[in-house]
Design brief:
InterPro entries: GPCR_Rhodpsn (IPR000276), GPCR_Rhodpsn_7TM (IPR017452), Olfact_rcpt (IPR000725), OR51/52/56-like (IPR050402). It comes from Moschus moschiferus. Putative odorant or sperm cell receptor. This is Olfactory receptor. By secondary structure, the chain is an all-alpha fold. The chain is built from twelve helices and three strands; from the N terminus they run βααβααααβαααααα. A three-stranded mixed β-sheet has the order 2-1-3. The longest helix has 34 residues. It is globular. 36% of the residues are buried.
Length: 320
């Protein structure tokens, strides 16, 4: 039920809360939809936590490649926890209200973890570039201190990029009759459209953040793989070429799983105003829920050391 407020003689309005609609047109079957969503959230948390435990407890995985994989898994856990509480609250209990400030907090963490994931994927491409192009210097370039600095730089970059966003939203005058969000979580583009004020600054800053993070990272990843491919084609043995490329397959799949939905979300929010309402939340769910589910599966299937380490962790749990 939408709460009623009195708006007489109000020149500046910020709603006490927003109403999250969940999946438009499918409200009647939210209970059934909670089953696949709960399964995906469980799979995402379980799979990524297993990767973190496997890397931590297996000395042979204490290498730069697997440290970056741990960063990716930790980021996926954060991304999952950013949307899970409100999504399951809407689907399970039909609890659709979220406070204005709580909405801004969720929005900040949701987009921050997304920026972190993009940067971690870039760092992983740099790891593959050094490992293939200059294997003799790999250990000296990617030392533990260097990896820690890269991790801190990624977090600082995401925090500083997204820090202004909640304050840019708080300055807006919102429409009293436009407090319904089209998702079961707070998404920047969705919240911004509820304003009755000029949102050009918000749009420009959002575009600037997108270009300086996902846009920049995707271009640098492509550049890294251009150099990697050039190095691989210079190898004399076909077997060595295949072996070098096989070390990149998992990362390439993770990049595609993340960046294809990112492109879809960006295109739909800017150009898909006339699409059916259900398209916007579905693409957003693919963008935010699917990568944390698929990444652990990709690395378990394609990486034998990770697969064996996870089995060792599970056997240890069962025996204890």
């Amino acid at each position: 039920m939408i709460p009623s407020w009195s708006f007489d003689n109000i020149s500046f309005f910020q709603p006490p809360s927003f109403l999250m609609i969940g999946i438009p047109g499918l409200e009647a079957i939210h209970g059934w939809l909670s089953i696949p969503f709960s399964s995906m959230y469980t799979a995402a948390l379980t799979g990524n936590c297993l990767i973190l435990l496997a890397v931590r407890r297996t000395p042979s995985l204490h290498q730069p490649m697997y440290y970056f994989l741990s960063m990716l898994a930790l980021t996926d856990v954060g991304l999952t926890l950013s949307t899970m509480p409100t999504t399951l609250a809407v689907l399970w209990f039909d609890h659709r209200l979220i406070g204005f400030n709580a909405c801004l907090v969720q929005l900040f963490f949701l987009h921050s973890f997304s920026v972190v994931e993009s940067s971690v994927l870039l760092a992983m491409s740099f790891d593959r570039f050094v490992a293939i192009s200059n294997p003799l210097r790999y250990a000296s370039v990617l030392t533990n201190n260097a990896i820690i600095r890269i991790g801190l730089a990624i977090v600082a970059h995401a925090t500083l990029s997204l820090f202004p966003v909640p304050f840019l939203l708080k300055r807006l005058n919102f429409c009293p009759n436009k407090t319904i969000l089209s998702h079961s979580f707070c998404f920047h583009a969705d919240v911004t459209r509820r304003a009755c004020a000029d949102i050009i600054m918000n749009i420009r800053y959002g575009l600037c953040v997108a270009v300086s993070t996902a846009g920049r990272d995707s271009l640098l990843i492509v550049l890294s793989y251009t150099f990697i491919l050039h190095t691989v084609l210079g190898l004399a043995s076909p077997r060595e070429r295949i072996r070098a490329l096989n070390t990149c397959v998992s990362h390439i799949l993770a990049v595609l799983v993340f960046f294809i939905p990112v492109i879809g979300v960006s295109m739909i929010h800017r150009l898909g105003r006339h699409l059916p309402p259900i398209i916007h939340p579905l693409v957003a769910y693919v963008y935010l829920v699917v990568p944390p589910v698929l990444n652990p599966i990709i690395y378990r299937v394609k990486s034998k050391p990770i697969r064996e380490a996870i089995l060792w962790v599970l056997r240890g749990k069962c025996q204890s």
